[in-house]
Every structure is written in structure tokens, then in C-alpha cells.
Design goal:
Shape: globular
Strand content: 15-25%
Number of strands: 12
Oligomer: single chain
Length: 247
């Protein structure tokens, strides 16, 4: 299910690439997450407020606008079927051409015959809950440190994250939730600190109360996100931020 949701999110990223002005930081491709309905969503793609959504709860794609909602069931759908639906809707309702093209590579490929399948509904619910956890934890950190920055999901690496200068400090922090990768085979919270354009070294920092510092391949701190409470995630980030500030 992790792979399928990562691939399905690319339909949203492609909409941003197709319809929005290109941003140098790629922010036109990034996504929001609604904790109430469990949906990823694009930036507004038209004057009618069209957004393309990916619904974790129902395993569907949705076009939402001030005219209503149009839904496409992913379970049993081929990649080519999804593209046809997206292309037809875009042509009729946005008068624009949807293109499934990217300027980055994913860790896996997809062809026209690839078929989506709701093979594990329980795992899909767990993945939604991880996004809810990440959003809640980052909203808490955002508020506590007055970061006033957007929490977004970046479709390339599929992480939920924020990147912001730390007020009353000379450091910048990047933190969020990452999917399993070469750093960890589990979803994990991560944080890195930056000063004068350089990543802050972690090899000599004091031990964290939870999680661990990394310096090989990734320089920062990580914490396994499985079965994590919001309070534990917030405590992890606050501990790491305090140690980074006092380095």
C-alpha cells in the first residue's frame, strides 16, 4: 500500500506541474493534507477552485471545486484508466491539458497496465494515521516556535515536512515524517539543523532522550514513528531543537 499511495500521489504532482506556474523550489508540486477527511490535495488549479485529491479513507481520487466533487475509484483501476479520467476532466472542466510528466525519478516505475488494488485496508488506515500524526506534531511545533510556515507533502520523497528559520536563533531547521528508505525500514520522524548554509554536525551532540542522531548518509536525528503518540513526537523534536541550538 505504501508503493501504491506514493504512485497515486504522483497524479496530484503531475496536475501541479501541468497547470501551475513553475516555482524554483518545486513548491507548485507539493501537497497539503486534511486530517479531518484523510485527503492529500493540490494547490488550487483553476479559478473555480479545482483541487485534485487523494483519499486515504476510500482509496479514491477526487476532483473538488465550488461546483462539487467528482470521484474515481482506484481499486481495480489501471494506470491508463486513471490517466484517461484525469485528461478528460481537465479538458472539459479546466480547458487545459493534463500531462503525466516529471522532472524527477521515483524508486519504482509504472506502466499503462499497472493496476491499483486495495490489498490491505488496515495498512492503508495505518498510513493515513501516520499522516495525521505528522500533521498534528508539526502543527504543534509550528505553534510553539512561532515558525509560521506551511506543512506540505513533497511527492518526490513523499515526506511530510517543514523548513524554517528558528526565531531568535541563527539556525534553520528541516523536520517532518519520512517514508521507509535507506535510512530506516520504518516510517520515521526526522530533523536536521543548518547554520551559515551548512548542516550542523551531530557526531558530538549529547544523546537524545528518544531517537538517535545520524551522521552517515543523513545528518540529523530520527525517531521510529510506528505506534508513536503525538506528545512523544513533539518531545523528540523539542529535545533535538534544544541540542541543535546549543551546539
Amino acid at each position: 500500500m505504501e508503493k501504491q499511495m506514493h504512485l497515486a500521489a504522483q497524479y496530484l504532482a503531475a496536475a501541479g506541474i501541468s497547470f501551475l506556474e513553475k516555482k524554483s523550489d518545486d513548491s507548485h508540486t507539493n501537497l497539503g493534507f486534511n486530517t479531518k477527511n484523510g485527503c492529500l490535495y493540490t494547490h488550487a488549479l483553476s479559478d473555480n477552485g479545482e483541487v485534485l485529491c487523494l483519499d486515504y479513507e476510500n482509496f479514491t481520487l477526487q476532483w473538488k471545486s465550488n461546483k462539487g466533487i467528482t470521484t474515481f475509484e482506484l481499486d481495480g483501476a489501471r494506470h491508463t484508466d486513471v490517466l484517461s479520467w484525469l485528461e478528460d476532466y481537465s479538458k472539459v472542466n479546466l480547458n487545459k491539458t493534463y500531462q503525466y510528466k516529471f522532472h524527477y525519478d521515483l524508486p519504482y516505475s509504472i506502466d499503462h497496465s499497472f493496476t491499483f488494488a486495495l490489498s490491505n485496508a488496515d495498512r492503508l488506515a495505518e498510513l493515513k494515521n501516520l499522516r495525521v500524526l505528522a500533521q498534528s506534531v508539526l502543527e504543534n511545533i509550528n505553534k510553539q516556535y512561532n515558525l509560521d510556515t506551511s506543512i506540505r507533502i513533497w511527492p518526490h520523497h513523499f515526506d511530510t515536512g517543514i523548513y524554517s528559520p528558528l526565531p531568535d536563533s541563527d539556525i534553520t531547521i528541516g523536520l517532518g515524517l519520512a517514508i521507509p528508505d535507506q535510512i530506516s525500514d520504518k516510517h520515521y520522524l526526522y530533523i536536521s539543523g543548518y547554520k551559515n548554509g551548512n548542516t550542523i554536525a551531530t557526531s558530538k551532540l549529547p544523546k537524545l532522550a528518544s531517537g538517535e542522531w545520524k551522521s552517515d548518509g543523513f545528518t540529523g536525528a530520527i525517531l521510529n514513528a510506528d505506534n508513536l503518540l503525538e506528545s512523544n513526537g513533539v518531545a523528540f523534536f523539542k529535545d533535538a531543537i534544544n541540542l541543535l541550538k546549543n551546539d
